[in-house]
Amino acid sequence: MRGPHNIWRLIRTGATLERTGAMQVVLDAFEAPPPLRFVARTLGLPFKWLGYKGDPDMPPATRALTALGPAYIKFGQILSTRPDVVGDELALQLRVLQDKLPPFSVEEAKAEVQRELGVPVDQIFSDFSAPVAAASIAQVHKATFAANGEAVAVKVLRPNIEKAFRKDIDAFYLAARMVEIFSPGSRRLRPMEVIEHFDGVVRGELDLRLESSAASEFAANTKDDEGFQLPVIKWEYSARRVMTLEWADGAPMGDNDAIDAAGHDRVHLSERVLQLFLNHALRDGYFHADMHQGNLKVAPNGDVIAYDFGIMGHIDEYTRRVYAEILFGFIRKDYKRVAEVHFEAGYVPADKDVDEFARALRAVGEPIFGMDATKISMGRLLNYLFEVTERFGMETRTELILLQRTMVVVEGVARSLNPQINIWQVASPIVSDYISKSIGPKAVLSDFAKTARVIARFGPRLPAMVETALVRQSNAEETPTRRGLAERVFLAVVLGISVGVGGAACLILVDFVF
């Protein structure tokens, strides 16, 4: 339940960071300026005694986040993939949040499986192991089917995890509201919408039936992708709080020593991980949105194996084209075009100067191209990007949150495998191929064909629609309103397609008007 009582939760958050010693670690990792350090310590120290103690055997940051709950753990998982942002030491400490959290008992897991599947565990499995991985929402057991001896992974949600997440997210809503009230300049970041988006993602992740469905769709999209594997879902042994899938053998993506010992090429793997993500995002518009090391393995044959499909991202065709054009512009160092795309898509207010924005983007891009990857401070770069978005009044695009977050995570995974990776060079062939297929004459013809098919379905209704448009137009004012102009364009499209002349041009005009 949302409300002022969540202030207590926020106070305990700061107090826990102080009590566990994580406050200083976090401030140092993000290179926080002196004013922010002063405010954080001033607010945290008086309430230190109210903080959760956590597990003293854990490093400070990990200790604090695990004590605070699953939503905080999710945040730590993201940071664990970015040693270039938080530093190698903190990233390594946070790595345990991916799949090495304290588990719940085997007995509880078996009881949950029986409740969900309606059959005693011993009738389904001849063997049911202790937890092999435990994350913020669920844990995984290795089991063996009694019928055929097949090894499978059984994922079981944590007891009462729904209630725990609800409590965390309620506090996040309050924090977002406070940001909007006390920092008007931050409203452009749409903090409430961001939390609402996160809330929706989490709700989907807490129903394993949806995860099973997502895995099935993802498998259908990627079945022909070379060097990529997905475990098969066992639908008859999956339910809302239990999911059973094929066991995947391989080296953990976060264990470079194991990858090296298996003889895999980490440079090649780093490129493949990044290119797979870009392919899925641009080609399919449907991608794995939680691709940290804990959800990836390297198969004995060198294939990348992905699992844990609780968070999947979807972007429509128009957004994919915008995203691809922005990436392509950066790859070609065409900062003017990158700036124009931002304006055309409405990401930057129309009253801003496109040339100034292009120069700001150049200041972002040139250091990345001209400097060794190991010497780039992503923390400083992200800080400058934030300044740029503030200066040009750019608002948070909630439809891009998962895409942007996953891009950050995947890049972090790639850099952990190969610190010298040049992300633009690796991305170039994937983005260029998408651009060639999706932007240009072929794309216009394809769009025209799709639109014609849609209009054809309305064939029996077209005469009445045309008559209605003509009547409205005859009653319109002499100076056409936007609505009147739209109706004129619609009429032009109908007539153009009917006679087979000028259809493509009409469609382009429709896209502009609407």
TrEMBL record:
Keywords linked to the UniProt accession: ATP-binding, Kinase, Membrane, Nucleotide-binding, Transferase, Transmembrane, Transmembrane helix
Presence of keyword Membrane: yes
Domain ABC1 atypical kinase-like: residue ranges: 97-342
GO biological-process terms attached to the record: ubiquinone biosynthetic process
GO molecular function terms listed in the Swiss-Prot or TrEMBL record: ATP binding; kinase activity
Alphabetized InterPro entries for the sequence: ABC1_dom, UbiB, UbiB_bact, UbiB_kinase
Pfam families linked: ABC1 (PF03109)
The keyword Cytoplasm belongs to this UniProt entry's keyword annotation: no
Transmembrane segments: 489-510
Family: Belongs to the protein kinase superfamily. ADCK protein kinase family.
NCBIfam families: UbiB
Listed name of the protein: 2-polyprenylphenol 6-hydroxylase
Source organism: Roseobacter insulae
Gene that encodes the chain: ubiB
